Amino acid sequence: MPDKPDSPRTLDDLDHKILTELAIDGRLSMRALAEKLHISRANAYARVDRLVADGVILGFGARLNPERAGLGTPAYVMVTIEQNTWREVVARLRVIRYVDHIALVGGDFDILVLVRAPDNAALRHLVLEKIQEIPGVKGTRTWLVFDEATGAGPH
Questions:
Q1: Where's the HTH asnC-type domain (predicted)?
Q2: Which residues constitute the domain of residue 25?
Q3: What is the CATH number of the domain that holds 130?
Q4: 116: buried, middle or exposed (CB in 10 Å: 19+, 13-18, 0-12)?
């Protein structure tokens, strides 16, 4: 799991507007960003640089359509682990192919893993031969995802 900054800087309204625009289109040029927000290019560069330096923006990349990328079998795998093994289990999960997201959670399960496999056979192999074989994993429960939608997000 990524480290959290010690004391996060308070984001102002302009920071939030920048984040919203970049979340919509991460390829937006600084010129276009500045024009949309009615600020100078120098201000846009400085703000984005600060958001990157502060760890608010973690990077820029392509958002994929998993189905078109050959990963049309998404599932959530709920993992129950032995006490005090979460660091090791998470470290092992992070390097397994098709693991998209890992969350340490409270409740009936300890770790929630979003996986995106190409098909049911790959999903079965992933759960039974990769995840369940990790030392410290006591059990799993898998929920198939039939359809997905994205929300507006925080920005």
A1: 11-72
A2: 13-53
A3: 3.30.70.920
A4: buried
* Alpha carbons 58 and 19: distance in angstroms, whole number: 11
User: Which pLDDT belongs to residue 6?
Assistant: 63
Q: Helices (H), strands (E): how many in the chain?
A: 5, 4
Pairing between β-strand 99-104 and β-strand 111-117 as defined by DSSP bridges: antiparallel
Around 143, how many Cα atoms within 13 Å sit in the side-chain half-sphere? Answer: 9
CA distance 61 to 26: 7
Positions of the chain with pLDDT under 50: none
- Identify the three-state secondary structure at position 123: helix
**Domain contains 40:** yes
Global pTM value: 0.78
